[in-house]
Amino acid sequence: MGADRADAAGAQHVRPAGEAPTREVVNAILYVVRSGCPWRYMPADLPPWQTVYWYFTRWGDASVTEKILATLRVKARVQQDREPQPSAGVVDAQSVKGVDTVGRDSRGHDAGTKVNGRKRFIATDTLGLLAAATVLAASWRTAMARIPPY
User: For residue 115, how far is the Cα from the chain centroid?
Assistant: First the structure.
């Protein structure tokens, strides 16, 4: 077993021997994302946290989530008798108050809503299917946001 990636604390994450079923890895990632629990606190009935984290980082680096999202969006549009690629979209933003643990470099002040924190931007197609999402400092205006194209 070799060290693969270090986290912010400098701990080495090692991929354990053996394979875990892909569905169980996806279930474990969804559990962490939905519950907000630390990787090490995952329930014992899921694969080991080191295995799940190993897949999570590799899939993130390979943009697997974005590829799955794009494929599912095309399938959903075709099921609705629409063109596979949207011709129009909607962009929306919401400012969210940032707590002290949020770094100052990623926070800003939204003068319109009087919120000090971050602003999340989403772009959807005309069916309401997610096309892109990004989080920036709250000081960013919607017109200035760098939302990746779909």
Answer: 23
**DSSP-derived secondary structure for the chain:** --EEEE-TT-PEEEPPSS---HHHHHHHHHHHHHH---GGG--TTSPPHHHHHHHHHHHHHTTHHHHHHHHHHHHHHHHTT--SS-S-EEEEEEEEE--TTS-GGG-EEETTTTEEEEEEEEEEETT--EEEEEEEETT--GGG--PPP-
Nearest of 94, 102, 85 to residue 138 by alpha carbon: 94
Which residue has 């919120």 as its token pair?
115
pLDDT digits (tens, 9 = 90+) for 74-115: 999 999 999 999 888 888 888 888 776 667 677 777 767 777
Quick one: CA torsion of 97, 102, 103, 109, rounded to 10 degrees? 0
What pTM was computed for the model?
0.63
